[in-house]
Amino acid sequence: MTIKRQCELLGLARSSAYYKAKFIEPSEEEVAIKNAMDLIHYREPSYGVRRIKHELNKQGFTKIGSRRVRRYMREMNIKAFYPGPNLSKRARDAKVYPYLLRNLEITRPNQVWSIDITYIGTPSGYAYMTAIIDWYSRFIVGYSISTTLQVDTVLRVVEQAVSDFGKPEIINSDQGSQFTAKEYIELVRGFKGTKISMDGKGRATDNVAIERFFRSYKWERLYLMYPETVREVKQITKEYMEHYNYSRAHQSYDYKTPAEIYFSSPSENLEKAA
Q1: What was the pLDDT predicted at 199?
Q2: pLDDT of 157 strictly over 90
Q3: N or C: which terminus of the chain carries fewer CB neighbours within 10 A?
């Protein structure tokens, strides 16, 4: 079937079939500002738009205004750690699921997973990490590094994690557009027995397990090694994940590693995955 006929059947202009999406390279100024904002946020996670803007002005970014800071915070998935306006925009008309973890006793692996996205900056550009953590053991069951915030990346990470380790009873996220998207909701609902949980509006601390992991990753590797390219970020991240899961002991878990905790307490799903 010709392209012309395909477009006629779909009711599309033929020119749209030849359109290729263009990736606009960020300016050096945008990269520098976003990298500075990321560091400010992880030093002072309670800072909102006004205080981040003030810190940027002190660092010499004098022409940036509140609207631009707010837009960058949304693009970077930065959420201030205090009850207040929600900075993760959900998909328009999307259904929001209730937060299921409040007062929940978490006693086993694969009972609760948390998923989130964080910004990763380099001097030459930036990327985003999507990661899933098992709440009970703090074991990272899946992650990906991408240069975009597309829902496809989230879907691949979830599918791979379930394939590798079995499905969770609950998967928790914020109300960002990737997690309220129809594709994500349909994927998770397709896992029989898995419930969807979402943070309360403006409550970044509801997903604290994955936020703590992101802080550890950035302070222990990203800011110390300061990778200059996304390719270097991917290599550093791969090495850190291995270290974090299998070598990094947690004081609160009697100095056991996440892997020791995760695999020493097999759940029904873990046995199936094995």
Answers
A1: 84
A2: yes
A3: N
* Long-range contacts, stretch 53-61, CB < 8 angstroms, 24+ apart: 61/32, 61/33, 61/36
Task: Look up the pTM and report it.
Answer: 0.74
Q: Which domains does the chain have, with CATH numbers?
A: 3-76 (no CATH), 112-273 (3.30.420.10)
Q: Which helix (H) or strand (E) holds 133?
A: strand 125-134
The mean pLDDT of 58-67, rounded to a whole number, is 92
CB 64 within 8 A of CB 33: yes
Q: Is 228 helix (H, G, I), strand (E, B) or coil?
A: coil
Q: State how far the alpha carbon of 107 is from the alpha carbons of 103, 262, 267, in Å.
A: 12, 11, 10
Torsion angle in degrees (nearest 10) through CA of 72, 139, 186, 93 = -30
What beta strand segments (E) does 135-240 contain?
Answer: 140-146, 170-173, 195-198
H or E element in which residue 114 lies: strand 112-122
Cβ contacts of 250 within 8 Å, gap of 6 or more: 138, 256, 257, 258
With CA atoms as reference, report the closest residue to 132 among 99, 95, 96, 159.
159
Q: What is the pLDDT of residues 230-256, one digit of tens each?
A: 999 999 999 999 999 999 998 888 889
Neighbouring C-beta atoms of residue 72, cutoff 10 Å: 20
